[in-house]
Automatic annotation (TrEMBL):
<dbReference type="InterPro" id="IPR000806">
    <property type="entry name" value="RabGDI"/>
</dbReference>
<comment type="similarity">
    <text>Belongs to the Rab GDI family.</text>
</comment>
<dbReference type="InterPro" id="IPR036188">
    <property type="entry name" value="FAD/NAD-bd_sf"/>
</dbReference>
<protein>
    <recommendedName>
        <fullName>Rab GDP dissociation inhibitor</fullName>
    </recommendedName>
</protein>
<dbReference type="Pfam" id="PF00996">
    <property type="entry name" value="GDI"/>
</dbReference>
<dbReference type="InterPro" id="IPR018203">
    <property type="entry name" value="GDP_dissociation_inhibitor"/>
</dbReference>
<dbReference type="GO" id="GO:0005737">
    <property type="term" value="C:cytoplasm"/>
</dbReference>
<dbReference type="GO" id="GO:0005093">
    <property type="term" value="F:Rab GDP-dissociation inhibitor activity"/>
</dbReference>
<dbReference type="GO" id="GO:0016192">
    <property type="term" value="P:vesicle-mediated transport"/>
</dbReference>
<dbReference type="GO" id="GO:0015031">
    <property type="term" value="P:protein transport"/>
</dbReference>
<dbReference type="GO" id="GO:0007264">
    <property type="term" value="P:small GTPase-mediated signal transduction"/>
</dbReference>
Length: 440
């Protein structure tokens, strides 16, 4: 290990593995290390025995099925089918290592009942979520979103969305608070209402992205990898290895080596590897990050689909903050044997949110009540960290912890920002050109 690299990356979470793959493709000599014996870090997927061991619950019961049939995510997220993560996957061609399947449905909880999220003007007119007059107003709003062209003032309806707030945009179309709530939280996917007082353009673009993603598969805007989210870090690890990257699991990090205030290497098991810069998740740099909140999650094993989801094999449910008098939404993501993450007849549902009280587990009760009978459950509470500085002074570039967001939107923004801090340029997400051989 006593060698010199362009970059040493600590932790094999998805963010770090994406950066490892991209930097390797660009010709950087990368050493990737993890204290764990498995890929994925916080975004790992565990079999049943590993899950019980991690949460100190002894041995799983025979009623749950074979351990090897489980791939349970520690971080519950789906992938927006037209989002930035898909652009990264396509650009790097990591999709050749992965198989994806669409998520069956996306639902919002209103007055204690579940409703499919309407995503087009036509669906809005059919939805039982709204009365007939509100359906028409919502339909007109969604038409406006679909037709809006920033370069064409004729589509703006007299509104400058870089100045007009999201709240004012909704009011312009006469939308009621309940409708605003489900559009802002179930389509734009904001987890609190802070966005309402900010310029409306980002919200409109998020709503449009949701609609475009739904158009790809017709049921929901999300896709999910077969065998769990940890397949993605492993895919990027393979990409890095093809381009000369070196991976070392089960390697304790004993010391970060500095010279003149800049990181120049890592010491592990008595050996030192030198580098020009370091990249890593917050757990490797506790003195260089600050706490930004806490997330509470509950992994649940079910023997049935979530009630009132049309027996969906996979689904996302959002409980908007106002529905349960909170400051943040509650999210539920459910997958099953259809995605090769559980035995036939079993579902994995994960309920999560930002912590707001001194009793975090109780905060998830509204979500747990929607699941029906639960075979077993595993609570976790984790701190969320963000770097104190941008890394330019000490050559250490740190990602943020994963948030409770239902998909990888903000996580992808973080990856792109870390990449830009390292290289000084935006990551090129232009799709690769297909040669004639690929099209035959």
């Amino acid at each position: 290990m006593n060698e010199e690299y362009d970059c040493i990356i600590l932790g094999t979470g998805l963010k770090e593995c994406i950066l490892s793959g991209v930097l390797s493709v660009e010709g950087k000599r990368v050493l990737h290390m993890d204290r764990n014996s498995y890929y994925g870090g916080d975004s790992a997927s565990l079999n049943l025995n590993q899950l019980f061991e991690k949460f100190g619950k002894g041995t799983p019961g025979a009623n749950l099925g074979a351990s090897r049939d489980y791939n349970v995510d520690l971080i519950p997220k789906f992938i927006m089918s037209s989002g930035q993560l898909v652009s990264i996957l396509v650009k790097t061609d990591v999709t050749r290592y992965l198989d994806f399947k669409a998520v069956d449905g996306s639902y919002v909880c209103h007055s204690g009942s579940l409703y499919k999220v309407p995503t087009t003007a036509g669906e809005a007119l059919k939805s039982s979520l709204m009365g007939i007059l509100e359906k028409r107003r919502c339909s007109k709003f969604l038409e406006y979103v679909g037709n809006y062209d920033e370069a064409n003032p004729k589509t703006h309806d007299g509104l400058n969305l870089k100045v007009v707030t999201a709240k004012a945009l909704f009011e312009h179309f006469g939308l009621k608070p309940d409708t605003i709530d489900f559009i802002g939280h179930a389509m734009a996917l904001y987890y609190n209402d802070d966005y309402l007082t900010k310029p409306a353009l980002p919200a409109l673009l998020r709503i449009r992205l949701y609609g475009e993603a739904v158009m790809r598969y017709g049921h929901s805007p999300y896709i999910y990898p077969l065998y769990g989210l940890a397949e993605m870090p492993q895919g990027f690890a393979r990409l890095s290895a093809i381009y000369g990257g070196t991976y070392m699991l089960n390697k304790p990090i004993e010391e970060i080596i500095y010279e003149d205030g800049k990181a120049v290497g890592v010491k592990s098991e008595g050996e030192v590897a030198r580098c020009k810069f370091l990249v890593g998740d917050p757990s490797y740099f506790p003195d260089k990050v600050q706490k930004a909140g806490r997330v509470v999650s509950c992994i649940c094993i079910l023997s049935h689909p979530i009630p009132n989801t049309s027996d969906a094999e996979s689904a996302q449910i959002i409980i908007p903050q106002k529905e349960v008098k909170r400051r943040n939404d509650i999210y539920i993501g459910a997958v099953s044997a259809s995605h090769n993450v559980a035995p036939k007849g079993k579902w994995i549902a994960i309920v999560s949110s930002n912590v707001e009280t001194s009793n975090p587990e109780a905060e998830l009760d509204p979500g747990l009540k929607l699941l029906g009978a639960i075979e077993d459950k595993f609570y976790s509470i984790r701190d969320v960290y963000e770097p104190i500085s941008d890394g330019s002074k000490d050559n250490i570039y740190i990602s943020k912890s994963f948030d409770p967001e239902t998909h990888f939107g903000d996580s992808c923004n973080d990856i792109l920002q870390v990449y830009k801090r390292i290289t000084g340029k935006d990551m090129d997400l232009t799709p690769p050109e297909k040669d004639g051989k690929d099209e035959q």
